[in-house]
UniProtKB/TrEMBL annotation, chains A, B:
The keyword Acyltransferase does not apply. Residues 1-70 form the HTH merR-type domain. SMART domains: HTH_MERR (SM00422). PANTHER family: HTH-TYPE TRANSCRIPTIONAL REGULATOR ADHR (PTHR30204:SF98), REDOX-CYCLING DRUG-SENSING TRANSCRIPTIONAL ACTIVATOR SOXR (PTHR30204). This is MerR family transcriptional regulator. It comes from Klenkia sesuvii. The keyword DNA-binding applies.
């Protein structure tokens, strides 16, 4: 198909398609003549994945490129793909404090988790705690144990979907990890707002502007 | 204090401070002479809040402005503040399908939630489902009931922190809602990655690149 057809089928503009090619996220099409390039179904599949990561998952193009490169490499061990998908978090602009890191690590220990020091989630969670402290709102950290219990329920469901796809080959397993990790954050954030409204109505009789 | 001192104390550059003032997120300082402006502790407190929302919470400056305006208004009902803080989600670029909206609403109903149709989380969750379907990965939607259970645990903890601050006045309650909602997503995403690593190690013996 031509680039205009690819744009219509994927919902991604021709300008963005050209940009993704120039940035190395999408392989170039096949030159079939002067100013003519043909794209195939592989391009469409790939564009849908890119669009999911960038538009719905909120990844930067640079982060999406790293994640896709990891998922593309057939020699990449499963644990590495998970590690790279896990890095799809806003990076703290300054390193979190050792106090907050220790506090999050302690919550993980009480939950019985085995987590290495370099886990990107540990730094991200500690960065949030630092912000609570900087705002003088240490009380907000009281949610930690409940959030950890919830995170465990989510992670079990995540690994269940990975387990069910182990026979489908490494490419599918990698896609599961990448898509499930990145878009799963958005799914969880959405459900959390629904539950907040419901819980607010239950306690205070009001939860929404309408 | 002068702008350079405010920048040093807040960790926000003088250029960004001037931008936040021009965008209406931060009140201007007091002119004390030619090319001299004085800032107070209120500015420092406000900057820490802006920095939390933008740098750690990942909000755009426009979204942070809306959220802060809602939290600032003493006449704003609590339910409205929650509603506006809830809108701090990536907006779907196209409306979600009615099928996905119905599917998420059904999960909410089974969970016993009362949620109005315009809840921004409903649209965000449905947009993720649409992406799973577009990628041919309907199997990923199997996580929905587990995610909903986890979201309920999180929302209960969220409303607990709000309840404990009801006596501290509307400004504190609004700050709790805004900070807790926006940064809570990042905290939960971090803990989820820790739990994923731990669960991956438990099942597959590998979970991290190190």
């Amino acid at each position: 198909m031509r680039i205009a057809e690819l744009a219509a089928a994927s919902g991604v503009s021709a300008t963005s398609i050209k940009w993704y090619v120039s940035e190395g996220l999408l392989p170039p099409g096949e030159r079939t003549g002067y100013n003519q390039t043909e794209y195939g179904n592989d391009h469409l599949t790939r564009l849908r994945l890119i669009r999911s990561l960038v538009e719905v998952g909120g990844l930067s193009v640079a982060a999406a490129k790293d994640v896709l490169a990891a998922a593309d490499d057939p020699a990449h061990p499963f644990g590495d793909t998970l590690g790279i998908a896990q890095a799809s978090l806003p990076r703290p602009t300054s390193p979190p404090s050792t106090e907050s890191l220790a506090r999050v690590a302690d919550v993980a220990r009480r939950q019985g988790w085995v987590v290495h020091d370099g886990n990107p989630g540990l730094a991200a969670a500690a960065a949030v705690l630092d912000r609570y402290l900087a705002l003088g709102r240490d009380d907000l950290a009281a949610v930690l144990p409940a959030y950890a219990r919830a995170a465990e329920v989510v992670a079990e469901a995540d690994l269940d979907t990975v387990s069910k796809k182990l026979d489908a080959g490494p490419a599918t397993a990698a896609q599961t990890v990448v898509v499930g990790t990145v878009l799963g954050d958005a799914l969880l954030a959405g459900l959390r707002r629904m539950a907040q409204e419901s819980e607010s109505v239950r306690r205070f009789g009001t939860g929404s502007p309408s």
